[in-house]
Each structure stands twice: as structure tokens, then as C-alpha cells.
Write a structure and sequence with these properties.
It contains eleven helices and twelve strands. The chain has helices spanning 14-26, 37-46, 63-72, 90-98, 111-191, 196-230, 244-252, 256-261, 280-298, 338-341, 361-373; strands spanning 6-10, 30-34, 51-55, 81-86, 103-107, 239-243, 265-269, 275-279, 308-315, 324-331, 376-382, 385-393. It is elongated and about 125 Å long. It binds adenosine-5'-triphosphate and magnesium ion (MG). Magnesium ion (MG) is lined by residues 289, 293, 356, 361. The site of adenosine-5'-triphosphate has 22 residues, from helix 9 and helix 11. The modification 4-aspartylphosphate is found at residue 55.
């Protein structure tokens, strides 16, 4: 972009062309001249000017056509075009704007007017160009940020998985190598003669170590199982029709004994007749996770004298979108502090390191709801009153393949 700007003046009358060129040239613009439409187009595409002053009436390709062709070329369409035409030609004005001109100068023109309009439109075009570039930069910066965030989330997830698996796998390696050492030592001992008590001792030791090993490996495979849920394997989910009341009863049955042992009351208030056409396994998983969380986090291992976990459900009330279901899990436990509340759906966020799967529970709940069941989950909490509120459609959306 040179100084004030470069202007292409297109005018078939040599005297007018010279007059205009001198006017603009003297004002400091770089001026290129074209005596007809053909040359104007050729000159513009050879090196795009910043402004075109275009005479309407020219032999051959007239001004309107030149303008149309400029506007049709992606490389030239942003160059502002000002038409020059006789004062009385109202029609020209309208047609000029229709083919994409930004302005119109009536002949005979005043020098100040030509200069003022040229300057205004070059400035405007420059600002627009800068804006476009800034927008483009912003767009690519935003894409970059999104990509970085995804990578960071993936990195955190992988680090979390590695961290969680490290303990049980490390234990397994330790136990297995101890077993190996002992077996070697024992076989060395065989040559020197083995007493029955040694044999018994070895067998008992081995059985104990194998038990520990098995426990560590089970823990690892349970972790892997739950990591798989983070990805939400949609293809394996089978859709069916069921009554929510049956599903809730079935899903929570296995937890009853443990809740009773902790002295907690499980209060299920789900009316019959909420027919769902959805994925029963994820719904059951979500219920179990929320109730287990309440048991574990709201009341702790000690339980609570009048601790209660309530599961309730209802179809959305009138005035709310129909076909939606509201499912809530409430507890009267310790509550969740605001700082914790913000992060409970994040992967690997837990306030109890080293138990369970280490903070994947609610992340999986969130994923299942959003990606499989077509629902939402929110939470409200204060000491003595925590409520996980789920909205989900009675008929689940079709899963994408
Ligand atoms: N009902 C609740 N009352 C109090 N705190 C809760 C409740 N539910 C969840 N939390 C808090 O939210 C955190 C995250 O829960 P989440 O289920 O994701 O992980 P976790 O239970 O700690 O581990 P995981 O479920 O993976 O075994 C918990 O560590 C706990 O601090
Ligand atoms: Mg949990």
C-alpha cells in the first residue's frame, strides 16, 4: 500500500482523463490511466489498485460491465469503485449501485469533492481490509486455542489414567517378582532336602501372594473398564423399552445391603408408568454412581444417624417441554463446597485420592447423559441438602454410528 493510495482512472475522453489524473496526482495519489474498459480490467488484474474511478459511458465494454466483472473476480471484488456520470442520469446512479459501486460522482465535478470521496473510500477499504485480516487471525487463533485445549484435556486424561493404573500394576509387579524369587529359592532348597513344614509354608505363602496379585489385577481391570466408559462406547449400548420404576429398583438393589450397614435410609419415590425407550444400562449406571457418591462422600464411611438418600422421578410438569423426565438424587449429608462444586464433573477430580476410580464417576455420568441419553445433569448443594438433577427424554435420541 503506497502512501495515499493507488487509483485507476478509467475514462474514454482524453481531456477528462488527463484532468482527473492531474487532480489526483497533484494531491499525492499514484495514478494509473485506462482509456477503455478492456484496458481497465487488464490493468486492474495485473496489479489491483486501491480505488477505481470509472466513467459510465465508454465505447466497447461500458462502465457497468467493467464494474460487474471486477465484482465477480474474488481477487478484485473488494476494490471500491466510484462511478462518474452526468448529473442528470438518475438511472445511471441506481444501476451503478446495483452492480456494486460504492459511490457516484456527477459530472461536471468539483475537485474537492473528487478528492474527498477518493480519500474516504480508500480509507474505508483499508480499514475493512485490516478488519478482515484481524478477523481471520482471530478465527485461526480461536481454532488454535480449541486445539490446545483438546490436547491439554487429552494429556490430562492420559496422565490420570497412567497415574491410577500405576499403583495396582506396580503392586502386581512387586508381588509377582517376590513370588518368582521365592520359587527360585525354594527349588534351590529342594536339592538339600525339603521338610513337610517348609512345603506347607511355601504353599501358604504362594496362595497368599497369588490372592494379593489377583486383587491388584482385578483392580487394574476394573480401572480399565471404567476408563472405557469415559469414551462412551455407543455401539455396544442396546436400546429397549422399560418402566423407569423397575429399572431404579433393579439398579439400586445391589447397593441396599451396604447402605443399610452404614445406617442410611434409601428412599425411592419413582412412580410406575414412566415408560422409557432408551438405554437401560447407562441409566442404571448413573443411578448407582450418584447413590454410591452420596453414601461415600455425603456421609462418609461412618454413616449418619438420620442419613437419607432419596431417588425421585417425575415427568416434566405442564408448561415444560413434554416427553422429558426429571430424575433427582438427593441426600442430607455434608454438602459440596462451592470450590469443589465447580469441578466435580471434570475427569479425575476427586476429594478422596486412592479410593474408587479416582474421580471418573461423575465425568462418566455427564458423558453418558450428554452423549448417549440426550439429557443433562446439574447439581445444587448446601450443607444438609445436595441434589443431583437430571433431565432426560423418555425417548432417547438415535445414536450416531
Ligand atoms: N453427594 C455428594 N456429597 C458430597 N460430595 C460429593 C457428592 N457427590 C460427589 N461429591 C464430590 O464430587 C467428587 C467427584 O465425584 P466422582 O464420582 O466424579 O469421583 P469419586 O466418587 O471421588 O471417584 P469415583 O467415582 O471415580 O470412584 C467426589 O470426590 C466428592 O468430593
Ligand atoms: Mg464417584
Amino acid at each position: 500500500m503506497s502512501g495515499l493510495g493507488e487509483i485507476l482512472v478509467v475514462e474514454d475522453t482524453p481531456a477528462s482523463l488527463k484532468l482527473l489524473s492531474d487532480l489526483l496526482g497533484n494531491a499525492g495519489y499514484l495514478v494509473r490511466q485506462a482509456p477503455d474498459g478492456e484496458l481497465a480490467l487488464w490493468s486492474a488484474s495485473a496489479r489491483p489498485p486501491e480505488l477505481v474511478l470509472l466513467d459510465v459511458n465508454m465505447p466497447g465494454i461500458d462502465g457497468f460491465e467493467v464494474c460487474r466483472r471486477l465484482k465477480a473476480d474474488p481477487a478484485l471484488c473488494d476494490i471500491p469503485v466510484i462511478f462518474l456520470s452526468a448529473q442528470y442520469e438518475m438511472d445511471d446512479k441506481v444501476r451503478g449501485f446495483q452492480c456494486g459501486a460504492v459511490d457516484f460522482i456527477a459530472k461536471p465535478y468539483q475537485a474537492e469533492e473528487v478528492l474527498a470521496r477518493a480519500q474516504a473510500h480508500i480509507r474505508l477499504a483499508r480499514t475493512q481490509k485490516a478488519l478482515k485480516e484481524t478477523l481471520e487471525e482471530l478465527r485461526s487463533a480461536r481454532a488454535e486455542v480449541a486445539r490446545n485445549e483438546r490436547m491439554a484435556a487429552l494429556g490430562a486424561l492420559v496422565a490420570g489414567v497412567a497415574h491410577e493404573l500405576n499403583t495396582p500394576l506396580g503392586n502386581s509387579v512387586l508381588i509377582a517378582s517376590t513370588l518368582e524369587d521365592r520359587a527360585r529359592a525354594f527349588s534351590d532348597q529342594i536339592g538339600a532336602g525339603v521338610r513337610r513344614s517348609d512345603l506347607e509354608h511355601f504353599a501358604a505363602d504362594t496362595a497368599k501372594a497369588a490372592g494379593l496379585l489377583l486383587r491388584s489385577l482385578h483392580k487394574s481391570s476394573a480401572l480399565v473398564e471404567s476408563f472405557k466408559q469415559v469414551a462412551v462406547d455407543q455401539s455396544s449400548e442396546r436400546r429397549s423399552q422399560f418402566d423407569l420404576a423397575d429399572l431404579v429398583a433393579q439398579a439400586l438393589q445391589p447397593l441396599k445391603a451396604g447402605l443399610a450397614a452404614d445406617g442410611l435410609l434409601l428412599d425411592i419415590a419413582v412412580p410406575r408408568g414412566l415408560r422409557m425407550d432408551s438405554y437401560s444400562r447407562p441409566v442404571a449406571h448413573i443411578l448407582q454412581q450418584l447413590v454410591r457418591n452420596a453414601q461415600l462422600h455425603a456421609f462418609g464411611a461412618m454413616g449418619s444417624a438420620d442419613g437419607c438418600i432419596r431417588v425421585q422421578a417425575a415427568a416434566q410438569e405442564e408448561g415444560e417441554p413434554c416427553g422429558l423426565l426429571r430424575l433427582e438424587v438427593l441426600d442430607n449429608g455434608c454438602g459440596i463446597t462451592p470450590g469443589t462444586l465447580e469441578r466435580i464433573f471434570d475427569p479425575f477430580f476427586t476429594t478422596r485420592m486412592g479410593t474408587g476410580t479416582g474421580g471418573l464417576g461423575l465425568h462418566v455420568v455427564h458423558n453418558l447423559l450428554c452423549h448417549v441419553l440426550g439429557g443433562q445433569v446439574s447439581v445444587e448443594s448446601a450443607p444438609g441438602a445436595t441434589c443431583f438433577r437430571i433431565t432426560l427424554p423418555l425417548t432417547a435420541p438415535a445414536l450416531s454410528p
